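FYI - complex with magnesium ion, inputs then prediction.
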Amino acid sequence: AAKESGGDTFRFYSSEMNARAVSRMDMEANLRRALEQEEFFIEYQPQIDLITNKVAGVEALLRWQHPQLGVIPPTQFIGLAEETNLILPLGEWVMRRVFEQCVMWKQEGYLPFRVGINVSGRQFVQPDFVDMVCRLLDETGAAPELLEFEITESVVMKDVDAAVLTLEALKKLGINMAIDDFGTGYSSLSCLKHLPLNRLKIDKSFISDLQDNADDRAIVEATIAMAKRLELGVTAEGVETEGQYGFVQKRECDEVQGFYFSRPLSPSEVADAWLIKR
Ligand code: C2E
Ligand code: MG
Ligand code: MG
Ligand code: MG
């Protein structure tokens, strides 16, 4: 497992190597090279419909296959990619790759399912973000109504008026929108009500402690109820146990995503294990 240390140093631990520190500048140069060499790949984690128990969608999750350090999780490099604006070309690479994968699954004859993509705030606020999405849809032929962009509350709240315009434009394209990590940011509920959203994804930090923490139980229960009243889809993220699954299912949560059902998988693994051919 890789662990981020404080200050200017990123420290990676991998099975083949002993502890090794990589300076921030090294990391930045590393990231640039990785983009050029396309050292990234994408895994897909199923999202299960709690009524049918079938896959309703998958979430695309980025990984970095570092030649020496092994697979580096996104929590270890997205922050730096954002600070250095490398998230812009990287985010575009992810989007193109995922759109192409959607088209391939369709060509292989799988029944339609949603595909979630994480969009960084840096990307979302680019003046040409919607144009870029449009262009990629055109170039790849991906179906926008099967796509769901995930953004966090803070991205919306930073500039609500601008966010509304972007959200409206994406909605016009047919793309679905989800709030990721819901409950960890500060969003005004009265504001959320007016946004063109499709889904709230309850942050996994509220799910992990459900068993022992009455506050978390109250928060999860209330969030599910609120989402339903606002006619939003609601996904519980990070469901690992039967107990957590049972709790959200009883509260009529729509979907769950978590290790209880599946870890993130390669495109062919997710297809073999979860997708259904017509
Ligand atoms: P996220 O969007 O909230 O994604 C869910 C994270 O929870 C994923 O971590 C997933 O592997 C993990 N997870 C799912 N089920 C479980 C579970 O049952 N237990 C536990 N402990 N974890 C679970 P991952 O893949 O490490 O991604 C971390 C974050 O990195 C993502 O959180 C997202 O914010 C960011 N990220 C991933 N891919 C991209 C990307 O393409 N672009 C951007 N901008 N951010 C990305
Ligand atoms: Mg997400
Ligand atoms: Mg999340
Ligand atoms: Mg997150």
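The two ends are 39 Å apart (CA to CA). The pocket of magnesium ion (ligand 3) is lined by residues 180-181, 201, 203, 237 (CB under 6 Å).
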